[in-house]
Specification:
This protein is of the alpha+beta class and 132 residues long. Helices cover 17% and strands 23% of the residues.
Length: 132
């Protein structure tokens, strides 16, 4: 999903996506995710306006077992922020797995950042803040 947004006199394209999950033992799922990421970036990298890309990429932001081919592709857009990074600097921003996702597995602690925000191009606006 994409929308061109005008804020404080500046225009940018906001894009939301949810890439295919990889499935152990099913290489086709990884191939689909890579193709989705490549197609998405091919349509975004050369736009004439700044881009904010947000979504569930199903690929860990940090090196390790949860990283998939989509994440290195997305590295071509410099990271703007990760969930929780500015509001809670001590919070690593882990978003997966969710507690209760698999009720039979018992409690789990999130240990991957798969829900990410990226920006491409200079953003020439300031977010409005609420004044008391």
């Amino acid at each position: 999903m994409a929308a061109d947004v005008m804020a404080n006199g500046s225009k940018f394209r906001f894009v939301n996506t949810h890439l295919q999950s990889t499935i152990p033992g099913l290489p086709q799922a990884e191939q689909v995710q890579r193709a989705q990421a490549d197609e998405l970036l091919a349509n975004l990298l050369f736009t004439s306006i700044p881009v904010v890309l947000a979504g569930d990429l199903n690929s860990n932001a940090e090196p390790g077992p949860g990283i998939t081919p989509a994440r290195p592709s997305m590295s071509r857009m410099p990271a703007l922020s990760m969930p929780g990074s500015s509001a809670h600097p001590a919070d690593r921003g882990y978003t997966w797995p969710l507690f209760g996702e698999d009720q039979s597995g018992g409690p789990v602690m999130a240990n991957e950042r798969i829900d990410l925000i990226f920006v491409g191009g200079p953003l020439q606006f300031c977010w409005a803040t609420r004044r008391p």
